[in-house]
Amino acid sequence: MASGQTLTHLDAKGHARMVDVGDKPATRRRAVAGARIEASPATIAAIVGDTLKKGDALAVARIAGIMAAKKTADLIPLCHPLALSKVTLDIVPEDGCAALAITATAETTGPTGVEMEALTAASTAALTLYDMAKAMDRGMRITDIVLLEKSGGASGDYRRTE
């Protein structure tokens, strides 16, 4: 990136464009995102206990999240395609089995961050769980899709404090 040039999705005429990261150094980057799905205790128990009619919702949600992270550039306009070195999803019950907490971690070595990949993985896992269990509980709520932390890159590290 030339000296004095800023990273922006707008060109000199104010039109949307993909940011040129060609001159940025490749560094190790990691992002962690979260999501939450609230449901009845019976629905959470069926998901965790693998008794849904559609099958193992946790396994399907993990795979869906990983696949979505790998396809983030196809889903989010102006996102750079990244070679991800690692994507993991953890899904655990919380609040006395009234919700599932989803944590997605994405890692790469490259010139741009993986925040969008982690967020896409977490939200897609939540949507997949909703789809797998909606026959049992259409009142489920997907909430708290947030960036929890990121490391690497020129903007430094970030950790959500609330």
Automatic annotation (TrEMBL):
<dbReference type="InterPro" id="IPR050105">
    <property type="entry name" value="MoCo_biosynth_MoaA/MoaC"/>
</dbReference>
<comment type="subunit">
    <text>Homohexamer; trimer of dimers.</text>
</comment>
<feature type="domain" description="Molybdopterin cofactor biosynthesis C (MoaC)">
    <location>
        <begin position="18"/>
        <end position="153"/>
    </location>
</feature>
<comment type="similarity">
    <text>Belongs to the MoaC family.</text>
</comment>
<protein>
    <recommendedName>
        <fullName>Cyclic pyranopterin monophosphate synthase</fullName>
        <ecNumber>4.6.1.17</ecNumber>
    </recommendedName>
</protein>
<dbReference type="GO" id="GO:0006777">
    <property type="term" value="P:Mo-molybdopterin cofactor biosynthetic process"/>
</dbReference>
<feature type="active site">
    <location>
        <position position="131"/>
    </location>
</feature>
<comment type="function">
    <text>Catalyzes the conversion of (8S)-3',8-cyclo-7,8-dihydroguanosine 5'-triphosphate to cyclic pyranopterin monophosphate (cPMP).</text>
</comment>
<keyword id="KW-0501">Molybdenum cofactor biosynthesis</keyword>
<comment type="pathway">
    <text>Cofactor biosynthesis; molybdopterin biosynthesis.</text>
</comment>
<dbReference type="InterPro" id="IPR047594">
    <property type="entry name" value="MoaC_bact/euk"/>
</dbReference>
<dbReference type="GO" id="GO:0061799">
    <property type="term" value="F:cyclic pyranopterin monophosphate synthase activity"/>
</dbReference>
<feature type="binding site">
    <location>
        <begin position="116"/>
        <end position="117"/>
    </location>
    <ligand>
        <name>substrate</name>
    </ligand>
</feature>
<dbReference type="InterPro" id="IPR023045">
    <property type="entry name" value="MoaC"/>
</dbReference>
<keyword id="KW-0456">Lyase</keyword>
<dbReference type="InterPro" id="IPR036522">
    <property type="entry name" value="MoaC_sf"/>
</dbReference>
<feature type="binding site">
    <location>
        <begin position="78"/>
        <end position="80"/>
    </location>
    <ligand>
        <name>substrate</name>
    </ligand>
</feature>
<dbReference type="Pfam" id="PF01967">
    <property type="entry name" value="MoaC"/>
</dbReference>
<dbReference type="InterPro" id="IPR002820">
    <property type="entry name" value="Mopterin_CF_biosynth-C_dom"/>
</dbReference>
